[in-house]
Amino acid sequence: MESPFVVVGMHRSGTSLVSRILDQTGILMGQDLQTDHESKFFIGLNKWIYDNAGADWARPAALEELIDYEPARKQVEQYLRTRIASSASKKFSGHPLKNGLFDLDLKWGWKDPRNGPSLPIWKAIWPEMKVIHVIRHGVDVAASLHSRSVKNWADDEGRFKKWAPLYKWRESNSPIRRGQRAATLPHALEFWAEQMEIERKVIKTCKTVLEIRYEDLLTEPETILKKLWDFVDVKIDEELLINIKEMVDYSRAYAYKHNSNLNEFAEKNQKILEKFGYSA
Question: Can you say whether residue 233 is alpha, beta or left, with left for phi > 0 and alpha for psi between -120 and 50 degrees?
Answer without folding.
Answer: left
